[in-house]
Design a protein that fits this description.
The complex is a heterodimer of chains A (about 300) and B (about 300). Chain A has about 300 residues and is an all-alpha fold. Chain A has a single domain (about 65-295), classed as MetI-like (MetI-like fold, Orthogonal Bundle), CATH 1.10.3720. Chain A is about 75% helix and about 0% strand. Chain A contains 15 helices and two strands. Chain A has a two-stranded antiparallel sheet with strand order 1-2. The longest helix of chain A is centred in the first third of the chain and has 34 residues, at about 70-105. Chain A is flat, with a radius of gyration of 24 Å. With about 300 residues, chain B is mostly helical. In chain B, about 65% of the residues lie in helices and about 5% in strands. Chain B contains 14 helices and three strands. Chain B has helices spanning about 20-50, 50-55, 70-80, 85-115, 125-135, 140-150, 160, 170-180, 185-190, 195-210, 210-225, 230-235, 245-250, 260-290; strands spanning about 1-5, 10, 15-20. In chain B, α3 packs across α14 (about 260-290), α4 (about 85-115) packs antiparallel against α11 (about 210-225) and α13 packs antiparallel against α14 (about 260-290). The longest helix of chain B is centred in the middle third of the chain and has 32 residues, at about 85-115. Chain B starts with a strand and ends in a 7-residue tail after the last helix. The chains are: A mainly alpha (about 300), B mainly alpha (about 300). Chains A and B meet through α2, α4, α5, α6 and α9 of A and β3, α1, α4, α5 and α6 of B.
């Protein structure tokens, strides 16, 4: 009787069986996530061209990156600029739009699809359309429109003038960037019960901004954290849109990003050690930003 | 069909919208945003249907006046005489995406079941590790992953695009969150009936977490279908390449749309962006169900 009670208790545990079920995931997770992080950190201290064994260099790669590599500093600046603009804008927009859509009834599905669809289309493919919109001659849709309403009198070189390139990349990324955060917010709003809304009214909440700050935001912290982490890791990994819009390398390195720099050294010059130090810096940045977000949005 | 009755707009007898100052303002705002969001997508559809002379009109025209399917026949026939037919790229994309989806669903659901419902010793530490992996972008591990793929002899194979995308922390996390909501009683009943864990997993757990599976289908299909860095790094054989690279090749790199390929390019773009939207639309309801549990609790 006692034994039976034990198996029935809610804390059923079977470690051996659990690891059998976990095995496929864990093997692949170690092979393609954990070991690569460790190996990457090791390689970042070496000179490695894939033909000879890695040669230990100490912190030489990092010194060169920070002191001598002008393109890396440009990439760093561009990526930060990109992440600090597009990350928060995407997050804010996805929150506001999810909130607005949640008030709708019959048209909810349509608006949700319209706003989320850009997040799931191929960045490489849709860039072709944006390139046409931003095309530097008078054929470009935006130039044509701006000239027609008289805002400018000669075409702007959106995608070849270094002044505008990063702005265009940010613009397209925000358009594509509602992403999973938007879905998370939409689902969270949907799950907030009518009762809570009514209870808030009884507690003296009157305006919707009061409801937002005292009821919704505190309750949505877990979703906010998930969405914020998603949008920052995506923002710091920016690569394919930048390449598709500005080419590789971009004019005057105006759309050069950390991942573009990594790609350049790893797969064009095959300097894997040096490229690994770029990857480690990217890792540190996203990890620290993630940690900051977790602290800022922690539950208490 | 549509009628305005007092202050209420009805379409097919369903109440769609009630007039008031703030409602109207909201609706206008939402329509503007939605219009802006889908403008490029509508443009893709419209352009892919344009006959050649309309593609190069000045001033440029957004919508086509005389829709034709000739761009699609150009894409599939004319480019078929090229070394790699376009249909081959479609097959490559579909094959790798479908394998990735099936693989990641099985691997992540099995793992999450093991962690959540079989409660192994050390499970907490393991989950902390997986959660940490959520915090950095996958590009960080590009180089060592390349070395792993190379040493497994998988360079220039489709497996190189599939295997690294199976054990994804993000996917594992979603299933785990969803599975935590599943009542223990179903599993207990099955165990008392003498079912083994393997049977329980396939017959009880998998049907129960359909919503989470549908969500994984959408996310992993999207990420595999749109993957750009993977094929660029792992594949050199043109016959193995996927749609994003094919589109880039047809367009002739950044910005250059030439007279001979503009039509085929528009059709290729359409073929490349459509499937992810279709998959998402089919699963929309279930995705909402899953995302309700996606918050990270500290």
């Amino acid at each position: 009787m006692r034994k039976r009670e034990k198996t029935l208790s809610s804390a059923y545990s079977n470690t051996g069986m659990a690891y059998l079920f976990l095995a496929p995931f864990l093997i692949l997770f170690f092979l393609f996530t954990l070991i690569p992080v460790v190996v990457g950190i090791f390689l970042s201290f070496t000179d490695y061209n894939m033909l000879e064994l890695p040669k230990w260099l100490g912190i030489t790669n990092y010194k060169m990156l920070i002191l001598d590599d002008k393109e890396f500093l440009i990439a760093l600046k561009n990526t930060f600029l990109f992440a600090f603009i597009s990350g928060p804008i995407s997050l804010l927009m996805s929150f506001v739009l999810a909130w607005e859509i949640n008030r709708l009834r019959k048209t909810r599905q349509f608006f949700a699809l319209a706003i989320y669809a850009p997040s799931i289309v191929s960045g490489t493919a849709i860039s072709a359309v944006w390139l046409y919109f931003f095309s530097g001659d008078a054929y470009g849709l935006f130039n044509h429109f701006l000239m027609k309403i008289g805002l400018i009198n000669k075409p702007i070189q959106w995608i070849t003038d270094p002044k505008y390139i990063l702005g265009v990349v940010i613009f397209i990324s925000v358009w594509m960037g509602m992403g999973t955060g938007f879905l998370t917010f939409l689902a969270a709003f949907r799950n907030m019960s009518e009762d809570q809304h009514e209870a808030a009214m009884i507690d003296g909440i009157r305006t919707s901004s009061q409801e937002l700050f005292y009821i919704i935001l505190p309750q949505m912290k877990p979703q906010l954290l998930f969405a914020a982490i998603n949008s920052t890791t995506a923002a710091f990994g920016v690569f394919d849109i930048a390449v598709a819009v500005a080419g590789f390398p971009s004019p005057n390195y105006a759309a050069h990003t950390i991942v573009a720099h990594l790609y350049d050294f790893a797969f064009i010059r095959f300097e894997m050690g040096y490229a690994s130090s770029v990857a480690v810096i990217l890792f540190l940045i996203t990890y620290l930003v993630g940690k900051f977000l977790r602290r800022a949005l922690a539950d208490k | 069909m549509a009628e305005v009755n007092g202050k209420t707009v009805r379409v097919f007898g369903k109440k769609l919208f009630t007039f008031s100052a703030s409602n109207t303002l909201r609706m206008v705002f939402m329509l503007l945003i939605a219009g802006f969001m889908i403008m490029p997508l509508i443009y893709v559809v419209s352009t892919s249907l344009k006959p050649l002379d309309e593609l190069f009109l000045f001033p440029p025209r957004f919508f086509t006046r005389r829709p034709r399917l000739s761009n699609f026949s150009d894409l599939f026939n004319a480019l078929d005489s090229a070394t790699v037919p376009f249909t081959r790229y479609i097959f490559n994309s579909l094959f790798t995406a479908v394998c990735t989806v099936i693989g990641t669903v099985i691997v992540c659901c099995m793992g999450a079941y093991g962690l959540v419902k079989l409660r192994p010793k050390g499970g907490g530490a393991l989950f902390a590790l997986i959660l940490a992996a959520l915090m950095f972008s996958g590009q960080v591990t590009t180089i060592p992953s390349y070395l792993v793929i190379k040493s497994l002899g998988l360079l220039d194979t489709h497996l190189a695009l599939i295997i690294p995308k199976l054990a994804v922390a993000f996917n594992f996390f979603l299933v785990k969150q969803f599975l935590e909501q599943m009542p223990e009683t179903y599993l207990e009943a099955a165990r008392l009936d003498g079912a083994n864990e393997w049977q329980i997993f396939w017959r009880i757990v998998m049907p129960h977490i359909k919503s989470a599976i549908a969500t994984l289908v959408v996310f992993s299909f999207t990420s595999a279908w749109n993957d750009y860095l993977g094929p660029v790094i792992y594949l050199t054989n043109d016959a193995l390449k996927t749609l994003p690279l094919a589109v880039q090749t047809i367009s002739g790199g950044a910005g250059a749309a030439s007279l001979s390929t503009a039509g085929a390019m528009a059709a290729a773009t359409f073929v490349t962006i459509l499937p992810t939207i279709v998959v998402y639309t089919a699963m929309q309801g279930r995705v909402m169900n899953t995302m309700a549990h996606s918050g990270i609790k500290e």
